[in-house]
Design brief:
The chain is an alpha+beta fold. It is 43% helix and 21% strand.
Length: 454
């Protein structure tokens, strides 16, 4: 049965003094009621913490997703920008393929000047493409892609230089002496042609390698870069043409082509004197313009070859054909049979225009003028003292180019007559007066002048 606690059991003073049953019941009831709100508060805290963690995780996941998405968008934009930037570079390289095809297949229609101009465009154009790629300023989406495109353009530049050196060797005198039949050629010519063929085959290999590298470059780019916008770029459409047999035949055509041989022609196209002529005596009545007879010599020679990869070249002079002809040039001086009268003066200056009328660069060009007093020569034919001369170096002249040259004034005396010699030539600057046609490439004009008395 239930037993009410004693005084000792509930902590009251022994003997029941001060013990109140109602107060005891209220106290115990309050304790029982206070335990339930505390438990509910603990559960609420746990729930709130869980909810907060879940929300935080969702926020972090969203931020991470946004970062990933923005990174992917930036990478896609960068890749598409790279493709857009390299398209013009590739287009310029591809346009040069037509020039390469003309060089390889148009031997019969090209002369030496045209062929060398095309080769020059190939070398300059391919080198410019490599340089332009290096300054692009936009990174490739994949480093492998950048390496493949660089290899493509570099191979084409190397091939252009190799081919240029090979063709210069094939059309030079070392490989073109004699006929085109191999059995009739000296051993040195056969070796030169074989060397040219080897270089051309190497150039073809570099071009085919560049085409493979370009195809690999296109496939290496991610789809997001829109690589389908890249143009087709193929330099070798007929690989068989770069094989040993076709190349050997091509070298023989290059070496035997008459239009591809070196022709050096240096000429005087105009001459004037200062002070100007006041009158001309001894002219034929039928003459309506001033002319002068000149002797011009053109010689097929070898100039310094373009540097060929793997070889060392040096200037060599080999005369293959020499023609001398008398030409009539319209000048501002009369023919040899007449005499040009100058106003009283103590010096005369000669101005002439020199032109390279050949198909090859001419180096070491000079111009010279000499006056020989006829009165002194007639008194002492063996004397060389009455000759005054001057000369000046011009340098190199490209095919088809010309230059105006003013020579240092020559001393003359009033009342005297002179023979005036004007010459152009190549090599060392003349140390002595030039009063006869120069050897090798050049031209000499002669005219009589007389200085009026004061």
């Amino acid at each position: 049965m239930f037993r009410v606690p004693t005084d000792m059991a509930i902590g009251l003073p022994h003997g029941g003094v001060g013990w109140d049953p109602l107060a005891f019941s209220a106290m115990t009831a309050g304790k029982r009621r206070g335990s339930f709100p505390s438990a509910r508060r603990s559960t609420r805290r746990v729930v709130l913490v869980i909810v907060g963690v879940v929300v935080f995780a969702i926020v972090v996941a969203e931020v991470a997703a946004d970062v990933v998405n923005s990174g992917a968008i930036a990478a896609r934009v960068a890749a598409q920008t790279y493709v857009a930037e390299v398209v013009p570079v590739i287009d310029e390289s591809s346009m040069l393929a037509a020039t390469m095809s003309l060089v390889r297949n148009g031997t019969g229609s090209l002369d030496r000047t045209g062929l060398e101009a095309d080769l020059g465009r190939l070398v300059a154009g391919t080198s410019a493409s490599v340089a332009e790629l290096g300054t692009l300023g936009v990174a490739a989406p994949i480093s492998r892609s950048a390496q493949l495109l660089k290899a493509t353009l570099t191979d084409r530049a190397d091939a252009a230089r190799t081919l240029t050196g090979a063709i210069e060797l094939a059309i030079g005198p070392a490989a073109s002496a004699g006929g085109s039949a191999v059995s009739a050629l000296p051993a040195s010519v056969v070796r030169a042609r074989a060397r040219a063929a080897t270089l051309i085959i190497n150039a073809g290999g570099e071009l085919m390698s560049s085409d493979r590298d370009y195809r690999s470059f296109v496939t290496s780019l991610p789809r997001s870069s829109k690589s389908d916008r890249l143009p087709v770029s193929k330099w070798v459409t007929q690989p068989a043409l770069w094989g040993a047999a076709p190349v050997t035949t091509w070298v023989a055509q290059l070496s035997g082509g008459a239009k591809l041989r070196i022709h050096e022609v240096l000429s005087i196209v105009a001459v004037t004197v200062q002070p100007p002529v006041v009158r001309i005596t001894g002219l034929p009545t039928a003459t309506t313009f001033a002319t002068t007879t000149s002797t011009s010599t053109s010689t097929s020679t070898t100039t310094t070859l373009t540097t060929i990869p793997g070889t060392t070249t040096s200037p060599t002079t080999t005369s293959t054909s020499t023609t001398t002809s008398s030409t009539t040039t319209t000048l501002q001086l009369p023919p040899l049979e007449s005499t040009s009268v100058l106003p009283p003066t103590h010096q005369v200056s000669v101005v002439l225009v020199v032109a390279n009328a050949g198909n090859a660069q001419i180096s070491g060009v000079w111009a010279a003028a000499s006056v020989v007093a006829e009165s002194a020569v007639s008194r002492n034919p063996g004397s060389s003292s009455p000759i005054h001369s001057t000369a000046v170096g011009i340098g190199g002249l490209a095919p088809g180019s010309s230059v105006e040259v003013t020579l240092r004034p020559l001393a003359v005396a009033a009342g005297d007559s002179y023979e005036l010699w004007v010459s152009v030539g190549t090599g060392q600057l003349p140390a002595r007066p030039v009063t006869s046609p120069s050897k090798g490439v050049g031209q000499t004009d002669e005219v009589r002048i007389r200085v009026a008395s004061e």
